[in-house]
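To start, an entry.
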Amino acid sequence: MGGITFIHAMDNRPDAMQDIGVDLRSFDLNLLRVLDALLITRSVSGAARRMDLSQPATSAALARLRQGLRDPLLVRTGNRMMPTPLAEELRHRIARVLEDVDIALGAAARFDPATTQRRFRIGANDYTSAVVLAPLAARLQKLAPKAVLEIIPMEAAAPELGLATRELDLVIIHLPRLQAIRSVETLFHETFVSIARIDHPRLGRKKVSLQAFLAEGHVLIAFKGMTVGLVDHALEARGLSRRVAVTVPHYLVAPSIVAMSDLIMTVPRRVLAAMGDTTRLRAFPTPIAVEGFDIGMGFDLHSDADPAMVWLKSIVRETAASLKDSGTRRPS
């Protein structure tokens, strides 16, 4: 079944099967596909349908897995089956092993977006999740309805590590974060715009001067609680400062704060375009030059050998290209 999943952490431990002392010489590797289906569906009946097996056969396979791995793997919590910590640890590794086997046997050469059940894992931060991956998810649902998109937060994680361990297929993030990755493409350049509520009592519809801009309280996106951003660096270069009244860790809540208060905010232009209903907000040119930034896509050097990855990268490029117009519109 297709869908989009947000993964909250990455496991970077050594091979988990070795960690728990499993003897691969006696372990039935055919059970890994059943385990993969169980961890996707979290249901014996769902896994049976996915594998085209009977429910008793799937239950028997789960019993063998529990015995072989010496762990219950799935435990019932209310009406749901929840994975154990070991199962969560194994989930990505097993999926990757199975995908590698498929590629090695030539299944990837027959890649068809319309029928693939591939799981694509993309590392992103708050900005790229909102601006790039939201429209990418919509595009994938149309072109590859059975695929799964997993978005792994990269606010602090090292993107090169995720690619090296093959926990990630791609990383889409600010270009400086990709310096340690050999294969990188620049997707687009981002600039800034400022916003205030449409009926702001002092700013109205007139041109906003730097003096008026500095007289207002500001909202700042601060992932680590910092109160200094790119606007502050630009102001500091001119011996000026502003008052940051509110800091929030994500872009999602910030526009609502601006729309319901007299505070103003400076945001990447494409974030504003991704907000949807902006009828309560007015965009205006930031009255001080703020340096923009580049968004890039990092990937494994050998990904061109995988037709599924070649296709995914092309869809990312198309999605990024479709955002260029929204990134260049002029505010009022």
Notes: Residues 105 and 236 are 59 Å apart (CA to CA). The two ends are 44 Å apart (CA to CA).
